[in-house]
Every structure is written in structure tokens, then in C-alpha cells.
Design brief:
Elements: H1 4-7, H2 11-21, E1 37-41, E2 44-47, E3 52-55, H3 58-61, H4 70-80, H5 94-106, E4 113-117, H6 120-137, E5 147-151, H7 160-165, H8 169-172, E6 183-185, H9 202-217, E7 221-226, E8 230-231, E9 237-238, H10 243-254, E10 257-261, E11 285-288, E12 300-304, H11 306-310, H12 332-347, H13 350-368, E13 374-380, E14 383-388, H14 404-414, E15 417-418, E16 425-428, H15 436-450
Parallel strand pairs: 3-15, 5-6, 5-7, 7-10, 10-11
Antiparallel strand pairs: 1-2, 2-3, 4-12, 8-9, 11-12, 13-14, 14-16
Helix pairs in contact: 4-12, 5-12, 9-10, 13-15, 14-15
The chain binds pyridoxal-5'-phosphate.
Residues 119-121, 124, 155-157, 227, 232-233, 261, 263-264, 289 line the site of pyridoxal-5'-phosphate.
Length: 451
């Protein structure tokens, strides 16, 4: 039964309240005109007017197995019959404990401990703070280590710590006076290589620049933070092969910690359970969020090694404790959704289906490349993007104020497909459960939108 409050409001009343009261994320409220979704099933959203939309953005890159999957719904309901919330401060719950164990078994080797939070930014903040504190209380404390090395165009969330390591000036420059200084390397973007660089030497070119940064700042480095393999908010930039592996080698050489922010790319999104697996990399910290609960409930996790964990052990009065926590960290309802999400990866063999789906999407993307306004197309697993440009020859970008990709997405919406634009890029990030037939609908609608 709906609440009497929603039942009594018409669609237009809801729209009016939504525009005037609800402050939507990353939205200019003066121009806001978003959908209001009433219910969803599988890859389809239905709005309050009864119109159906294919969810081509996985409800902001987090839906994995589709909406209202009976297995996840049931797991949450079963948990609800036991207890909805148990604090993580001083107590625990079997569902959360077993989830932590399961994550450590799935994760790259050496990640034996899990800190739970509620959202992706918090998972990254936790990794950053743990790394910082580690150098102060490891066997040979190194208190000069105060700097993080981050990538150009990086996005790690919207809290001030994660904004500090972020590198998307449109989002982050406003807050500059509040941010701590960060060392910044280039974004290894294969579409925008400098003139002297080609795809064959791109990895070496970028790694050389990072080597210099490591060399010059070795004593001050706390950690390097990367979105492994694909930088999402940078425009779904797929790194040149070997870049992540090279960064890991530099970390080993200079004894620097590696934070892998897999909030967007983890949980099967790039075709492997974790993106680090593409290059057999085990980071010191693995941050998960978004798809961890299948896109159902807010939960994130920071996995780390025993080397880090051990540096925090001691008696209460030693003050080696990690004084950080979130009220809903490790929430059992979320943990139940995460367990069910992991079950489905096994039951439905989700990862096995991805290469065929990616290939089907890529075939259309390759065709779109002929379009006069499409500068680049790219994909990794079920994370794809189209980059629109003003001039294909020079790769000149449309001025962001023109919102070109937003206009194209509006036309795509007319065809019943929801995509969320990102600067001049149109990310295509459907639920991993999307069928081949639905991929055809998705791509045909994009073709229409491109005109
Ligand atoms: C790579 C990456 N890290 C962190 C975040 C922040 O996650 P949240 O929005 O859950 O705080 C995002 C969100 O898009 C992301 O893409």
C-alpha cells in the first residue's frame, strides 16, 4: 500500500513539489525537470505518468541485476524480519560478518579486512585516512608522509577529502580554498594523447611522468589513488593497457600505498568482478560502493591488508585506534542485499554474459563513430561512452555551457531510454542484466538521439 500522502498527490503536484523543495544532486534547480519514477522492474523504470524508460544509466551506475530482482527483494525482506539496523560501533550482526568474509575471499589477494561505510565517498575517505594514519604508527613511522598523488580528471566523491583528490575543475574548483594540496599526474586518456605520443607508447609515456612524481616526492607520499582501468566521471576514459600494473610497480619500488577506488568500476562493471583483476593488481585499499548492494541500498566498503590492520592494533591508551565511523556502516539490510547480489553473480553467471553484450554494444558504437559529431567511442565491459566534439579533426570540445550531450540525451529520452549526460560525453552504463534485445533498443534510441 502506498502512503496516503503519495496517493493523494497528482503527477503534476508531485512535479511541482519536487522542483521547489527537493534539492537534486548535480542539478541546476532553476532548470530542473527530472523524471519521477513510480516503480521499476528489470531494466525498466516507470514514471508517475505510466511512461516506461529503459534504465541506460543503471540508476547512476549502481544497478547490477535489474530492479526488483526477486532474490534481492526476498533477502532484504528476510533480514527485515530479524532486525533492520545494528550499530557497527561495539556490536555486529551475522549478515554483516559473513559479507565481510565473502568480500575478502572474492577480492584480490591480501585484502583480509573490511571497513563498512554508507557511500562511495566515505569508502574513499576511509582509505585515505587509514593510509595517512598507517604511516604514523607503522613499525618505522614516517611522519613526513602527508601527500596523496591523484590523477588528472579524477573523481572520488564529494566530501572535502575526496574533492581534494578530485581533478574535475567544473565540480571541484569552487572549493579550492578548503582543499588540502595534492600531487597531480596526467589523466592517461587514449583519445587525447599529446602529439608526440601514439597508442603503442602511451603507457610508457604516462608512466614516465608518474615515475618522476614518485621520485621527486617519495618521502612525502602517503598513497596514490586511482580509479583502476576506467576513469568514470572523467568521461569513461579507458586507460591504456598496463598503466595500472605500472602504477602498482612504482608503488612497490617507492614503498607507496595504492588506493584503488572501484566504487564505479567494481562489482562486475568492467567484465571482471574487480577492475584490478584486468592487470592482476592487488592494491593496499580497495574501495567498493554503488553496485555492492546491486544498486538497492547505500553501502560501501574499504578492504585492506593485514599490514595496515596490524599497524592499528594496540591497547586503548596507545591511541592507535581508527577514530572514524558512520552510523549505518555495516547495516544488515544493506549487507543482506549485498549477499544476494553476490549470490546472483554465481546463480546467473553474470560475468560470463558480459563479453557478448559488450561486443553487441561495441558494434553499434563503431557505427556511431562515423557520425560527424562523434569524436570517440569506447567501452570496457558494460561501461561505454560516446564523446561528442565540435570539430572531429581537431577534437575540439563543445563549450560545456552548450550542454550538447544533455540535448542529445533529451532526444534519446523521447525514445524511452534514460541516460545521464556527463559534460560532452554520453555514458552508456546499463544494468549488467540487460538482455541483447534491450541493448538493441538502447542503441537504436541513441542512434535516433544523435540524429
Ligand atoms: C570512482 C568513484 N568514486 C567515488 C564515488 C562517490 O560515490 P558516492 O556517490 O556513493 O559517494 C563515485 C561516484 O560516482 C565514483 O564514480
Amino acid at each position: 500500500m502506498n502512503s496516503p500522502c503519495t496517493d493523494s498527490l497528482s503527477a503534476s503536484e508531485l512535479r511541482s513539489l519536487d522542483k521547489s523543495i527537493v534539492w537534486h544532486a548535480f542539478s541546476q534547480m532553476q532548470e530542473y525537470d527530472g523524471l519521477i519514477i513510480d516503480h521499476a522492474q528489470g531494466c525498466w523504470l516507470t514514471d508517475v505518468d505510466g511512461r516506461r524508460y529503459l534504465d541506460g544509466a543503471s540508476s547512476m551506475w549502481c544497478n547490477i541485476h535489474g530492479h526488483r530482482h526477486s532474490h534481492i527483494d526476498k533477502a532484504i525482506r528476510n533480514q527485515l524480519d530479524k532486525v533492520a539496523h545494528v550499530t557497527n560501533l561495539g556490536m555486529s550482526h551475522p549478515t554483516t560478518i559473513t559479507l565481510a568474509k565473502r568480500l575478502t575471499e572474492l577480492a584480490p589477494a591480501g585484502l583480509a579486512h573490511v571497513f563498512f561505510s554508507g557511500d562511495g565517498a566515505s569508502a574513499v575517505e576511509v582509505a585515505m585516512k587509514l593510509a595517512f594514519q598507517f604511516w604514523r604508527q607503522c613499525e618505522n613511522p614516517q611522519t613526513k608522509r602527508t601527500k596523496f598523488l591523484a590523477l588528472g580528471q579524477a573523481y572520488h566523491g564529494d566530501t572535502l577529502g575526496t574533492v581534494s583528490v578530485g581533478g574535475v575543475s567544473r565540480f571541484h574548483s569552487m572549493f579550492q580554498p578548503l582543499l588540502f594540496p595534492v600531487l597531480r599526474g596526467p589523466c592517461p586518456d587514449p583519445y587525447r594523447l599529446p602529439p608526440e605520443v601514439n597508442p603503442a607508447n602511451a603507457t610508457a609515456f604516462y608512466l614516465n611522468q608518474y615515475r618522476e612524481l614518485f621520485e621527486q616526492n617519495a618521502e612525502e607520499l602517503v598513497a596514490v589513488i586511482v580509479e583502476p582501468i576506467v576513469q568514470g566521471a572523467a568521461g569513461v576514459v579507458v586507460h591504456p593497457r598496463g598503466f595500472l600494473q605500472g602504477i602498482k610497480s612504482l608503488c612497490e619500488q617507492y614503498d607507496c600505498l595504492l588506493i584503488a577506488d572501484e566504487v564505479a568500476v567494481g562489482m562486475g562493471r568492467t567484465g571482471t568482478m574487480f577492475a584490478c583483476e584486468h592487470e592482476q593488481v592487488s592494491p593496499d585499499f580497495l574501495c567498493l560502493g554503488k553496485g555492492l548492494t546491486g544498486g538497492y541500498l547505500p553501502m560501501s566498503a574499504t578492504l585492506t591488508s593485514s599490514r595496515i590492520w596490524n599497524a592499528f592494533l594496540g591497547r586503548h591508551e596507545d591511541l592507535r585506534t581508527f577514530f572514524h565511523g558512520h552510523t549505518y556502516g555495516g547495516n544488515p539490510l544493506c549487507a543482506a542485499a549485498a549477499h544476494a547480489t553476490l549470490d546472483l553473480f554465481e546463480m546467473e553467471q553474470t560475468l560470463r554474459g558480459i563479453p557478448l553484450k559488450q561486443a553487441r554494444m561495441q558494434r553499434c558504437l563503431d557505427r556511431f563513430k562515423e557520425h560527424p559529431e562523434v569524436g570517440d567511442v569506447r567501452s570496457c565491459g558494460l561501461m561505454a561512452a560516446i564523446e561528442l566534439v565540435q570539430d572531429k579533426q581537431t577534437k575540439t570540445a563543445h563549450p560545456w555551457q552548450q550542454q550538447r550531450s544533455g540535448k542529445v540525451c533529451k532526444r534519446i529520452l523521447e525514445k524511452g531510454v534514460w541516460l545521464r549526460p556527463l559534460g560532452n560525453v554520453i555514458p552508456i552504463i546499463p544494468p549488467l542484466s540487460i538482455s541483447e534485445q534491450e541493448i538493441d533498443i538502447l542503441m537504436a534510441s541513441i542512434e535516433h538521439g544523435l540524429g
